[in-house]
Amino acid sequence: LFSDDGVNQNDINGDVAIFNSCSSVAASLIAHYPKQLYGCPSPLFSLLLALLTHLLHANPKKGISQKALEFVKICELLIPHKDIFKKHVVGLILCYIQTLNKGMNPTTKSKLMPSIYALLDMCSSFETRQINAMIDVPSKTVFAPVFQSYQKFYQYHGQA
Question: How far is 89 from 65, CA to CA, in rounded Å?
Fold first, then answer.
């Protein structure tokens, strides 16, 4: 019934299944009905914030890889609609930064990196300045390496 580390395998499978179901609903809405979401982004981003918060505070032994992969898919689906959704992405990034500042499991951090890069990719210079203005100095220090790696490895720089 329990594995060696005391985590119930049925709980893990149920937790992942529920997370995947919620993620699938969000991904389907973004993929098939983006224009309908343009008029009401708040419920969508409330769901995304709940999913991100779950990922940030979940036990890394409870299917974090699978959950993070689902969240990355959602974030990547948002990129074509960045002109509409970019101002809402700021809240998700701030939630990540807040948890990063409090201390984050290295596994969780590495699994979430692609989704954070996708969210940062949606931000214009205005949103980037807004994020910078909204975080304190310790948070800036913790987030700086993440942002620098985004700029170095992920951000599109145009033709070479």
Answer: 22
- Element holding 75 (H helix, E strand): helix 64-78
Residue 74: which of 123, 27, 18, 20 has the closest Cα?
A: 27
Q: List the structure tokens of 141.
A: 């220090």
Which are the contacts of 82, defined by CB distance < 8 A and separation ≥ 6? 89, 121, 122
Rg of the chain over Cα atoms, rounded to whole angstroms, equals 16
What is the three-class DSSP state of 2?
strand
**What amino acid occupies position 115?**
S
Whether the Cβ atoms of residue 87 and residue 38 lie closer than 8 Å to each other: no
| Residue 104 dihedral angles phi and psi, to the nearest 5° | -130, 140
- Give the pLDDT confidence of 58-112 residue by residue, as tens digits: 888 888 999 999 999 999 999 999 999 999 999 999 999 999 999 999 999 999 9
Q: How far apart are CA 34 and CA 22, in angstroms?
A: 17
pTM attached to this predicted model: 0.86
In single-letter form, the type of residue at position 32 comes to H
How far apart are the C-alpha atoms of 106 and 99, rounded to whole Å? 12
71, 118 contact by CB (below 8 A): no
Cα maximum dimension of the chain: 56
